[in-house]
Every structure is written in structure tokens, then in C-alpha cells.
Design a protein that fits this description.
The structure is a homodimer of 248-residue chains. Chain A is of the alpha+beta class and 248 residues long. In chain A, 37% of the residues lie in helices and 27% in strands. In chain A, strands 1, 2, 3, 4, 5, 6 and 7 form a 7-stranded mixed sheet that branches. The structure holds a DNA duplex (30 and 30 nucleotides).
Chain lengths: 248, 248
DNA sequence: ATGTCATTGTATCAATTTGATACAAAGGTA
DNA sequence: TACCTTTGTATCAAATTGATACAATGACAT
């Protein structure tokens, strides 16, 4: 019974997809790695397929008359409900064996696959990887299309992933490390106000190394990218830390 | 007369292109920015279109069953005649208005454009930018397809460029600067043996800044990436510099 | 031969940046 | 009020970087 409802929901949203497919560039997709920061850990937002214990990145296609960046933003907004997210392309995945069709068959089980979908998905795909930096607390994950639900996962404890999506996340993380911009990354991943300690945890989890508290503080303050606010009134048994905010 | 011969050559190679087009992924291309180093300047290899005073990067398409990286290597080999070149993707260009068709019409002048080509080129294109690092002295530019000839240009003195190719070169240069790896770049752009002074000129032209001779020498030697060979017997009126080679 | 000139290889010192440690100032609890 | 913990800041040593000095070399003119 429950299974039947899901199957119905699945095919219903598929109808929508089918109608829009002719307006997309064939064999080309966008995949977004959505990073968030919570509880001292770097997270990625993933979605689970109906009927399968497999998770995937949020992907989409590009309209014939649509800028690629715009397509990435649209895809992202569809799945998170927020706009104005920081987004940047980091790599193109173009191996010859990037097919999604065999996977489609599993999702559809014994339901016949519509011809439009078959023609679209049976070909090999090239995909642009984008990464997004979002304020964890502002995201309200939206399930759409073939997805049953969304959830945040620790970057180092990923579930079983679809296609080459685990590789894509790995590449995104490498890119983030290599081209780390303290202001950009902090500004987009942290909430409005935060303590120096929380900020340090962010960079530690991204770079995978520990910093010395006092030197980290000096380094960040010397950059002059933060405004110091009032001290935070903690209920903890120690001196209350200052709160900071990124200068605009 | 001369014009007529050129037109003939143009359409003859076009026949070849037409036959291969159905095996390519539509609306998707690869463009290579080929960097070389000569006479204290960073150069890019460009090709000139027949009948037009417009130069372009070397581009190509991707076979349906071909890895994207392989397609880039193939394209590069077609135009330079050398294999095993260092090649890396750096950006994907996906603005909605990336059309080549209007340009095609100019090239064809009043010759009718074959339908296969028309269908292929009339759509908007997405292009992956690759950059190549080659030993200037080893390249023997090969003209192919719609190109009349190839030539090296100083990165800062580009001729009139086709499409958005000037932007693509700019992006490639920015990428090269941002992710500068001293060993990688030097190893691929320098000839087998070179003096410290020549190496310094390379990094100065890439980064667009002057270094202090003595400190540059110390910095590079401290990296332990070079082997020192015998001194070079110059005909110059001063102390002969050592020759160096990158460690393998 | 000898002196001049330009360039190279190396040493050296100062200035700056980075790493490590010390310590007083809170904020809560016993 | 003593005690514990964490925070903010100062300070010193170590490492890196910037700037300058100088002897060594190779060709040429005298």
C-alpha cells in the first residue's frame, strides 16, 4: 500500500519531467554539492531515492536558452527553497561511461519507461560540478521529483551514493581546500554571529588539521575581515567569548 | 584565383567534418589554450581562419564514446603534432548566447551551408576550457580544417579573436596564476636545460611581477626540484651561469 | 698581461611572519 | 572565596622573506 503510493508520486512528478525534457540541452547536467556547517562538522545535503537506499546530489538540466550558472541556481533553489546562495563551478565530469540509464531501470522496476525519458537518459552524460555554501540554519530541504527525502551528512561519513557522486563530493572538497578564501567561506557557511572558537572549528574541519587557538585568533583578526560585537553571555563556567560578524 | 583555392580547401576539409559530426555529442565543445614560453614572454598558439583576419583557439568535439580528457588530447595532437602534452581543464563556459552560427555564415560567405552543419552549429554551445603547457621548441603547428595558419602570440598582445576566446585565454591565465605549481609549470614550459635567469623570466611573465634575482635563486633551490648541471659556456662577457634541469 | 665591465653564486643582516608559551581576566560551581 | 575552565592578549624564539654586499668568472679593450 505504502509502496503503491510512492510509486504513484514518483510517476506523477516524472510526467512533469517528461514535459520539460525537450527544452533541455541533451547529455548535459549540473550537479550541486551543497555544503553546510553544523556541530563542528562540515556537512553535505543529499537526497534519497524512492524505493532505494541510495543517496544522490541535487542535479538538474540546462534550458536551451538558459545560462549555465542560472541553471545551477535554479536547481539549487528547487531543492533548498532559498535563493542568493553562493555557488561556484569547480570541475567537469566527462568520462565516457557516465550513464544513468541502468540506474533508471532500477528505480522504475517493472514500470515501462516512457520513450522521451529513455531517449534522454540512455545516452552518456557530461556533468558540471558546482558547490554551494549555505547557512545550515536557513535551509529547509525540499524533496522533489524522484526523491523521497533530504538529509545532511557529515562529509566524512557518507551513505551509499548514486553514480559517481561520491567522487564529485571528494573533488569539491579538494577544490574548497585548495582555493580556500577565509572571508568567502566563513561568510557563507557561518551564521550571522559566531564566536572565534566556532569559526576555528569550521576551518579545521575543512582543512582537516588543528590550529593553535591563540595564533588562529591573531591570524584572523589581522585580516581585518571581522567586526567584534558584544560578548556572548554564555551559561558556561568560563569567561564569555566575544561574538563576531563578517564586515560587509 | 588564390581566393578560390582557399575556398576549395575550406569546403574539402568541411566534408570530413560533416561525416564525423553525427558521432559527436551535440552542443558541446572543447577549447584548448596552448601556452608556450619563448624570448622571456608567455605565448599562446592561435590559428587564423581562411579569408578572415580573426584568430581562434584550437577546439574540437567529443565523441559519444570518448572520455572528455581524451578528446582534449586528440584535439591538441591534431593541431600541434605532439602527444603526451600536459593538459588540464580549468573552466566551463556556458553562457546562453555562445553561438557560433553567425560566425559560420561569414566564413561560408554565399556558399550554402550543408544541413548537417547547420543543425549542429545553429544551436548554442557549451565549451570546456583546457590549458596545455608545451615546450615551445617542440611544437610544429599543423593547420587543419577551417584554419589557414597557426602562430604564437604574446599573451598580452593578442590579435582580434573569434567568439569569446579572448575571455577564455584570460581565464586560463588567471587559473595558471592562482594555482601556480613551480615544478609543474616549469617542467612543462621550459626546455630540457635552462639557466636560473631563464626560469626566473618564466615566472615573472606568468605572475606579472619582478623578483629579486638572489632571493629567487634561493627560493627555487630550497625547493630541491632542480638538478644542477655543468656551467653553460656562453659567448657573453661575464661569468657563465649553471645549467639546470628538473629532477624526474 | 692587465684592467674594465656585466653577470653570477653565495653570504649576511634586518624585517616580517609564524610557532609556542605564559598569564591575567572573566564566568560559573562547590 | 577558592577552584576550574576558557578567553584575550602579550611575549619570545624560530623560520621565512627582503635587501644588500662582495668575490668569482668570462669576454673584450688596451
Amino acid at each position: 500500500m505504502e509502496n503503491r503510493d510512492q510509486k504513484f508520486a514518483l510517476t506523477a512528478t516524472m510526467e512533469e519531467l517528461m514535459r520539460s525534457i525537450p527544452s533541455y540541452i541533451p547529455q548535459f547536467s549540473v550537479d550541486c554539492v551543497i555544503f553546510g556547517f553544523h556541530g563542528s562538522e562540515l556537512k553535505v545535503l543529499l537526497s534519497k531515492f524512492h524505493n532505494l537506499d541510495i543517496w544522490a546530489l541535487h542535479g538538474g538540466f540546462i534550458g536551451q536558452d538558459e545560462d549555465m550558472d542560472a541553471a545551477a541556481h535554479r536547481t539549487l533553489c528547487d531543492h533548498t527553497g532559498i535563493t542568493g546562495i553562493y555557488l561556484e563551478q569547480f570541475h567537469i565530469f566527462g568520462k565516457a561511461n557516465r550513464q544513468t540509464y541502468r540506474f533508471m531501470e532500477t528505480i522504475f522496476e517493472d514500470t515501462p519507461i516512457p520513450e522521451v525519458l529513455e531517449n534522454f537518459f540512455k545516452k552518456r552524460f557530461i556533468s558540471v560540478g558546482y558547490f554551494a555554501l549555505v547557512d545550515f540554519s536557513k535551509v529547509n530541504p525540499v524533496s522533489a521529483l524522484v526523491f523521497e527525502k533530504s538529509a545532511w551528512f557529515d562529509v566524512h561519513e557518507l551513505p551509499k551514493m548514486a553514480f559517481d557522486h561520491a567522487d564529485i563530493i571528494q573533488k569539491a572538497l579538494e577544490y574548497l581546500r585548495r582555493s580556500l578564501d577565509y572571508k568567502l567561506v566563513g561568510f557563507n557557511l557561518m551564521p550571522e554571529c559566531f564566536t572565534m572558537n566556532e569559526l576555528q572549528r569550521l576551518y579545521e574541519t575543512i582543512l582537516g588539521e588543528k590550529f593553535q587557538r591563540t595564533n588562529f585568533q591573531r591570524k584572523i583578526l589581522d585580516m581585518r575581515i571581522l567586526e567584534r560585537l558584544a560578548t556572548k553571555q554564555t551559561g558556561k563556567g568560563h569567561k564569555a567569548p566575544f561574538l563576531y560578524r563578517f564586515k560587509t
